[in-house]
Amino acid sequence: MSAEPTRPLLLPQNRKLRHLRGLSIRNLVFSRPRGHTIDDAALNKTPAKIESLRNAPHLHHALSSDDLRPPAARRRSTNLANGSPAARQKRFEDAFDSRLTDVFFSLHVDGEEEPIYISEVGERATNFNFRLFDSSDLDSSITQAPQVTIKVWTKHLGTWGLLLVEEADLRALNWLGSLQNIHFPPNSLVFHMVDGVYSLELSAKPPPPKQGIALPTSSYNALMRLATLDNSIQDALATRDLLTQQINDFLSKEAKNQVPEAEAELALTSKYLTQQRRNVEAAKKRNEDLKASIVARRAAIAQGRDVQARAAKDVENATEKLAQSKELVSKTKDQIRGQRRRICEDLSRIYNITPIPLAPPLSFQICGLPLPNTDYDSSSSSSSRQHKSKSSACSLTAIDEDSLSAALGHVGQLADMLQYYLGVPLPYPVHAFGSRSSIRDDISQLPGSHGHSHDPRQREFPLYLPRGGGGSFSSAQFRFDYAWFLLNKDIEALCASQGLKVVDIRHTLPNLKYLLYVCSAGTDEVPERKRGGVRGLWAGRMRHMGVGNDDGGSSSVGGSRRGSDASDALARQREELRKAVAARENGGAVSGFSSSPAEGAADLPFGETKLTLRTKGLRENAAP
């Protein structure tokens, strides 16, 4: 560690704000100076006091020391001797708190509204040594100022206030050297400069005398030689200045040659001219490109405007038809909704789903065939028939199995038709074949059976009960149960398409009846079936050229409503046939048509056509 400096390094006129490194405060007090050097101003100068001082005092007889009474004890303002330790501690703390405080200072320079530096807060002390700071980041106009204003802020009784404002001239500071063995007056400011410690209140500390070794001086002859040499140097400098002046005068009188400068300027001008010509050529080419681009863009804009005009015209024409199209779409949707209601109502009448009398809740039958809601009980299957008599058990079980298979066939056919009428494809397609219907699963990832995982038949599941026993009966029973489950999933998909929530998919007929009820419900009138549709198809050629059966139950002709156009047309055609046959019989012809189609066709009042008739017994007769 280097020793403390014994004398200042900076001259007073060289001290600037950039040399200030820190600030300290010594003996901080809150009482301010009285403003008087002596206490004569505190004397009482009232007229009564002055008059009493003018009166001469009277002499009194002095008493001996034996007659004197002991002086009465003065009243004391403190009673710490008799106080408790807590009270004395409280008095001491109050005394210290009245003198200790929190302090910080700020530096200000003329011409600056804001302070150039704000120190940290010193807590609860009377002597403060603040951290040193660096003023190199300040502006040069601030760091070169020799004067600075110091404002000391204190926190007394919980409130911050300004205690001291000191305008210090750094050139008038007194050098102290160190802070040891120095008694500072109240509220003293100590300045830490780059070369030591300074103060305003205290006088400068005299520097100690320099201790040096006496050096030998030069002789008289040496000094004379130095003086002669100095005179020679001064003469040489004067001669040099004279020659310089003469040369400058000669050069000023000589004419200046401007040819080289003109040639240099000409070369530079030619260079700039060449560059500008190249720039002009590039600008012309750019101008031509822009003109061509503008022409192309104008053509494109014209074409686009033409297309836009045609599109606007098309939109205007289409707008006129838009309202009609929307109205037609709305009307078509209403008609589709009405037709769906009518179809669902017809299906509910065709496939009549009614509750089973004297049965548990949610027990329904379709077309008179009961269908349970839960999984089929395998105890009534063929495996349990081994312990019963073959005659009675086989007959009863066969009836139950056939009824169940037929009921599932009706349900499958109804679900298959609903997918087309409602426009909702079934996830599991149903192949309706009456009591031998089946359902297909192309979605699930089924395990392979005997290495035939790619066999399409493995994805076909029967909707009828298996017959017989043996090792494969359990597998067939499982496939039947799984087919029933897939059918319930199809019904669930149909219900979900209509916004219906299925509580239990095992309720096959309740869910299906609920779906038909919702699809056929509505406040509007159900539309009638379109006339002129499927009329009663002629039974091909009349059997043996005779009149068709008049029984309305033998063909679909009998199913026409009385008074409808279809029934009237059929009646007229039937009457014409009767007349033709009667005329042929009266003419001596055989009972029946000719074997030749041409002959039979000549006697009929209408053209011959090969037609197909679906009867109630699901039989088909086609003309040969």
Instruction: Classify the fold: give the CATH topology of the largest domain.
Output: Actin-binding Protein, T-fimbrin, domain 1
Domain unit count: 4
Rg (C-alpha, Å):
65 Å
**What's the CATH architecture name of the largest domain?**
Orthogonal Bundle
* Alpha plus pi helix count: 10
What percentage of residues falls in helices of 4 or more residues? 40-55%
Largest sheet: 5 strands, antiparallel
Shape estimate: elongated
Q: What would the average pLDDT be, to the nearest integer?
A: 77
> How far is the N terminus from the C terminus?
134 Å
What does this entry look like structurally?
Keywords: Coiled coil. Belongs to the ATG14 family. Residues 60-87, 545-607 are annotated as: Disordered. Residues 273-335 form a coiled coil. The chain is an alpha+beta fold. It has 4 domains: 1-32 and 87-206, Immunoglobulin-like (Sandwich), CATH 2.60.40; 259-334; 351-520, Actin-binding Protein, T-fimbrin, domain 1; 543-622, no CATH class. The protein has 10 helices and 18 strands. The strands form 5 sheets. It has a 5-stranded antiparallel beta sheet with strand order 5-1-9-10-8, with no helix packed on it. Strands 2, 3, 4, 6 and 7 form a 5-stranded antiparallel beta sheet that branches. A 3-stranded antiparallel beta sheet has the order 11-12-13, covered by helices on one side. Helix 5 (259-350) packs across helix 8 (508-520), helix 6 (390-421) runs parallel beside helix 7 (473-497) and helix 7 (473-497) runs parallel beside helix 8.
